[in-house]
Structure formats: structure tokens, C-alpha cells
Write a structure and sequence with these properties.
By secondary structure, this protein is α/β, with parallel strands linked by helices. The protein is built from 10 helices and 12 strands. It folds into 3 domains: 81 residues, Arc Repressor Mutant, subunit A (Orthogonal Bundle); 99 residues, D-Maltodextrin-Binding Protein, domain 2 (3-Layer(aba) Sandwich); 86 residues, Periplasmic binding protein-like II (D-Maltodextrin-Binding Protein, domain 2), CATH 3.40.190. The strands form 4 sheets. It has a 5-stranded mixed β-sheet with strand order 4-3-5-12-6, sandwiched between helices. A 3-stranded antiparallel β-sheet has the order 10-7-11. InterPro entries: LTTR, LysR_HTH_N, LysR_subst-bd, WH-like_DNA-bd_sf, WH_DNA-bd_sf.
């Protein structure tokens, strides 16, 4: 007996509902009524012969079968979208120039860049890793097509994808040589840096003495110094290496108060060619999926 083919539109609705936090939001995004989305759910439940969602409070949550289907749905849709992009991009060429901070260079973003390369193999991708202010300046001069930036939501070209709180980051337990009451050893970027400013302001407000033991122009140097136990740093959780951990009150550090840092994509206010627009969409989808899954990192 031939297996039924899962409806791609229904799979896309399910994944969108997971990303947006509910079927009401998904219905609004795809321009369908709540009843139409409910019919889609019933249809796919009939296809697979399983209950995929159950009521919880005023909403629905995935059952074990529903969670399994969502895993496969994301893979199916990704392959579908890559196939269409690849076919349409066979005649494409040229170069897409992307700028991004070091926070993203060594962790999950390379998978996005790999996906882009598979989808548009004839397009040359140039990735520049640098500090936010340098990347934004290069974008405004027309030297970059896209920039993934932190704390640049005030710009008119910003597509804000997420707002992330600051966290204290330290090495594994027992590696930091510091006793409460002594100046807190800090590993920071050299100024100007908004993470540095936030760290010092929080410590001053809490009345905690501090000393900067190392400054680095790049985040890789900061991670290496913190992992070695030289000190702690303050950044956002995205890009946190597995060898480091979030610190809290039990570790003697104050709550890093203040406005969350915005993560945003920028195109300089210019019309993007199709290849750059595809990369723009890939990055946006990856960030939404990452946030819906939770930012991993030891804690």
C-alpha cells in the first residue's frame, strides 16, 4: 500500500505555528481563518493516524507524535525550499557580501551559510567578521550587502529579529581564581563597546570592585581568556561556547540589568538582488528557529 503524501502547506503551517507560538498567530500570518487552520490539523492527523496536538489551557500543545512530525516537517520544508532556490538559481551568479560579529562566526551560523552555498552554488559568498561599528560603516559605504548586527535597532534599515538579555559568562566551576570581596576580574572588548559599558555600569551600581585583566578586539580572544580562568565577561547568550557557562547570583555577580540587546539584519536601505535576499531570508529563518528552540549553552 502506497504511503500518503504529506501536504506541504499543512506542514508549513505547523512549523510556523511552532515558531510564532500558536496557531492563532500562524493563521494571521498566512491569511487564513482559525477554522481553516483547524481543518488542516484534522486533515494531517487523519493522514498519519495519530493525534498530533492536545488542548492545554486555551491553546494546543504537541503530543509526542506531533513533536516527531515537527522535526521531520522542518527537514522536509528546508529541502523543498533549497530545491526551489537551487533550480531558480542555476543561472545566478555574482557575489553576496555578508558582515557579522564574531559572536556568530564559530557557532550555529556556519550551517546557514552552508545551506546558502548548497542552494546557490554559483553565487560567491564573502563573509566578513568584525566589530559592529566597522560592519555598519562598511555597509553604509556600499562595501557589504548585508550585516547581522547587535544593538543597532535604531537604524531605519533594521529588521529586529530578537532582543536578548545580557548575561555574565564564566569558565567551568573551580577555574576562576576569585574570592568574593576581591575586585572581579574582567575580560572585555576594548572601547568603545556596549557590552563593556554595560558590565562596568552594572558593577558600579552594585558597588562591586572590578579590574580589567585582559582586553581583546575579537570575541574569540575573550572566549579563550574566560575559558582559561582569567576572568568573566558580559555578553549575550547567542554564540556561547560549550566550554563556558552562564553565571548568576550564586557565583557572586550582580543581575545584569538594562534593556535587552537587539539582534537585527541590515541591508543599508538598498534593494537586494535575489541571491542576497535569499541569504537575508535564510538568516531570518535560522534566528527564529534558534529562538523557538531555546539558546543552548551550559548554565
Amino acid at each position: 500500500m502506497q504511503s500518503p503524501n504529506l501536504d506541504m502547506d499543512v506542514l508549513r503551517t505547523l512549523v510556523l505555528a511552532e515558531q510564532l507560538g500558536g496557531f492563532v498567530h500562524a493563521a494571521g500570518r498566512i491569511g487564513r481563518s482559525q477554522s481553516a487552520v483547524s481543518q488542516q490539523i484534522r486533515k494531517i492527523e487523519e493522514q498519519v493516524g495519530q493525534t498530533l496536538f492536545r488542548k492545554q489551557g486555551r491553546g494546543l500543545v504537541a503530543t509526542a507524535a506531533g513533536e516527531t512530525l515537527l522535526v521531520y516537517a522542518r527537514r522536509i520544508l528546508e529541502l523543498n525550499d533549497e530545491a526551489l532556490v537551487a533550480i531558480n538559481g542555476l543561472a545566478a551568479g555574482g557575489t553576496v557580501r555578508l558582515g557579522l560579529p564574531g559572536d556568530f562566526a564559530d557557532t550555529w551560523l556556519p550551517a546557514v551559510l552552508g545551506r546558502f552555498n548548497r542552494a546557490l552554488p554559483t553565487v560567491r559568498l564573502e563573509a566578513v567578521v568584525d566589530r559592529n561599528r566597522v560592519l555598519i560603516d562598511r555597509l553604509d559605504r556600499g562595501e557589504l550587502d548585508l550585516v547581522l548586527a547587535i544593538n543597532q535597532a535604531h537604524r531605519p534599515d533594521a529588521m529586529v529579529m530578537e532582543r536578548l538579555p545580557a548575561i555574565w559568562i564564566g569558565p567551568e566551576p573551580g577555574r576562576l581564581a576569585w574570592n568574593a570581596g576581591d575586585p572581579l576580574p574582567l575580560v572585555l572588548s576594548d572601547p568603545p563597546c556596549f557590552f563593556r559599558q554595560r558590565a562596568l555600569a552594572v558593577l558600579e551600581e552594585a558597588g562591586i570592585p572590578w579590574r580589567v585583566v585582559l582586553t581583546s578586539p575579537g570575541v574569540q580572544g575573550i572566549w579563550a581568556a574566560v575559558e582559561a580562568g582569567l576572568g568573566v565577561t558580559l555578553r549575550i547568550a547567542i554564540g556561547l561556547p560549550p566550554a563556558l557557562r552562564r553565571l548568576g547570583a550564586a557565583d557572586g555577580v550582580p543581575n545584569p540589568t538594562g534593556e535587552p540587546f537587539a539582534l537585527s539584519l541590515h541591508d543599508g536601505g538598498r534593494a537586494l538582488p535575489p541571491s542576497a535576499r535569499q541569504l537575508y531570508d535564510f538568516i531570518g529563518e535560522a534566528v527564529v528557529a534558534r529562538m523557538s528552540a531555546g539558546i543552548s549553552g551550559p548554565g
